[in-house]
Amino acid sequence: MAGIVTAMLAVGGGVGSGLHRLSAEEKPAAPAQAQEGVVVEAAHVAAEIPRGLILEVGCRGQGDLALELARAIPSYRVYAASWDDARVQDARRKIEEAGLYGTLFANGAEGKGLPFPDDSMNIVVSSADELKDEVRLKEALRILRPDGTLLFLGRNDLLKKAVAPPQTLFKLTDGADLTKVQKLRPEAAGDWAQYHCDEHGSLVSRDRLLSLPLKVQWMNYYWRELCGESYDQHRFPGAVANQHVLVINDGKRNDSAFDPGDLVALDPYNGLVLWRRRDFFPQSKMLVDKTLYLATARDILAVDALDGKERQRYALPAEVKGSVQHVILWERLFIGIATSKGQPSTVFAMEVATGKIVWTREVEAGVYRFGNRGYYGFSMCIGDGRVYGTAYGTVHKDKFWALDAATGNELWKKEYDGPGATTSLLFGEGKLFAYAFADPTVIRVLDAKDGSEFWTKPNPGLQMPVLINNVAYFLGKMGKILAFDVPARRELYHGLVSNQGWGCGPPAATVTGLIFHRYGGLGVFSTRDEVSYSYPGFCPACGGMIIANGMLYASRPGLYAFAGGGTAPAVRNAKVAITGKEDTK
To answer: In this predicted structure, what is the pLDDT of residue 45?
Structure first.
């Protein structure tokens, strides 16, 4: 199956390129009424998503139905599959004669299976004479992606039985000549809606579907097209994903670390590129259903997540001084921070529905140093109705503040001796975790209600902690891990997860206790049994992982999606070697 996945879903930047449109003289005779109806309905379904994959099961009419689908929906890639080799050969001949190879393909099927990955097709078209047994029918439903549609010519009692309650993943609409089944998204699937995952600044997705062992769902190497030999320099900053779309910035396309790169949207289930905006790197991305909000230096844009078209633009008023550095979506408000050289920073709240400024508040700005260049730093998150922030770059001082998210009123302000290098904030379990990227690194935990110091520890790890069920897990270099019980204010254990390489880039985790990280390959740590697993053949780039839709999305270079249910097990390492415990009260 891995070879098929690579061949089918190692897709390029566009869909439907090279399409040959037939003239009126070249078009074949009109299809039968039922066949014509299914083509019309498929085009209606496809209109909701600009690009995708269609599978016609059966090579009906020796490929005639697949040809009609390709002509009616030129932006989609169409596959025809059959268990009858003669039909497949006839379909391939017709596709070649029509000049549609590259947009339309014919595939043979073996046994009763279909040679396509789980959850990969936007639309599946078939009939009772093709899906005439339960196994074949389940195959058609297996490859249909969530929010995808099965269009079934005729009526079939097996189909009704397969999608009937108590199952909750399918919705059936029964018609006289055409039956329509929609595959629903599992409730256990999670989103990654903003940076890092939510307004808390968390690295933990609410997803409960992703499990071990992993398998490759799809891969996309469109970066090669954009950047040639320098494609291996790509990063995966601020990616967001839900059931409709995966939105990323491809990072730099040349040797400059400040190249804006492109904003790219992909289908999260099959990796097809839906749209791209060249040389556009927003400060923040926020994804709500089918709307993508993008914060630029002086605007907040509402974009259709499926086609990339701008629907609304809110310009910041003069009272918000400087350039926007970060925006968080909280309830019905955008809460952001803007900075200006030599001036205090401005925290602001804007109504999502109207773009009206609700409040503004000046706070102390810090300076973030990158090489010889100075940038205005920020760290901000929201929890329990409060906006928490810090100033970066204040020499030998760590400064923190909290504002009321609804009114902007200052609730508390604290200053502590420290490196003045806090780069990330995380809210969880009533605490504020402040990570300072210094030498050594420092984690400071504050009581979120008043800013009082709760716990401070130098050199706990290389990134912000992963917070699962009241326990904070810190990943360090050379495979080290530290587990800290937050309410009890004590270290549970520290030890070695693996001895393979350095931890690099922020991890991503699930609420079920799987922490994905990089240690000389893709590593996984299970918090339930304190056992680590590794995939040595895959090494994500720095900052390259998010979790949504029951999948792990990672950059290597190129872009990969991993799902659970794989057959090849990971390398199971020994249980974490606990080297010590420490009371930190």
So the answer is: 94
Confidence (pLDDT) at 505? 66
Whether cis (ω within 30° of 0) applies to the bond prior to 440 is yes
Q: Where do runs of H (alpha helix) occur along 54-156?
A: 64-72, 85-98, 134-143
Residue 31 has pLDDT above 80, yes or no: no
Gap between the Cα atoms of 232 and 223, Å rounded: 9
Whether residue 281 has pLDDT greater than 70: yes
CA dist list (Å): 455 to 188, 439, 467, 480, 482: 34, 19, 15, 20, 14
- pLDDT at position 327 is 95
CATH number of the domain where residue 302 is located: 2.130.10.10
Tokens of 262: 């492109």
> Which structural domain, as residue segments, surrounds residue 215?
204-580
Secondary structure of 172-226 in HEC code, one letter for each residue: EECCCCEEEEEECCCCCCCCECCCCCCCCCCCEECCCCCCCCEEEEEEECHHHHH
User: What per-residue confidence (pLDDT) applies to 349?
Assistant: 98
| DSSP class of 533 | E
Residues 6+ apart with CB under 8 A from 44: none
Query: How many Å apart are CA 391 and CA 376, to the nearest integer?
Result: 9
Q: Which amino acid is at 139?
A: E
Question: In this model, does residue 516 exceed pLDDT 90?
Answer: no
Point out the domain boundary residue: 116, 150, 183. Answer: 183
- In this structure, the answer to whether residues 354 and 388 fall within a common structural domain is yes
The 8-class DSSP code of residue 581 comes to -
Strand partners, 442: 436, 458
| 156 against 58, higher pLDDT | 58
516-521 long-range contacts, CB within 8 A, separation 24+: 516/545, 516/547, 516/552, 516/554, 517/475, 519/479
Residue type, 11: V
Predicted local distance difference test score (pLDDT) of residue 378: 60
Whether residues 368 and 501 share a domain: the answer is yes
Sign of the CA dihedral running 183, 189, 190, 192: negative
Contacts of 247-253 with CB under 8 Å at 24 or more apart are 247/285, 247/287, 247/292, 247/305, 248/555, 248/559, 249/281, 249/282, 250/223, 250/226, 251/555, 253/226, 253/227
Residues 222 and 73 in one domain: no
192 within domain boundaries: no
Q: Are residues 119 and 236 in the same domain?
A: no
* Whether residues 136 and 280 fall in one domain: no
Question: How many domains is the chain partitioned into structurally?
Answer: 2
233 versus 547: the higher-pLDDT residue is 547
What digits encode the pLDDT tens for the residues 186-214?
Answer: 999 999 999 889 999 999 999 999 998 88
Question: Most confidently modeled of 28-37, 348-357, 435-444?
Answer: 348-357
Q: Strand, helix or coil at 87?
A: helix
pLDDT at 13 (0 to 100): 36
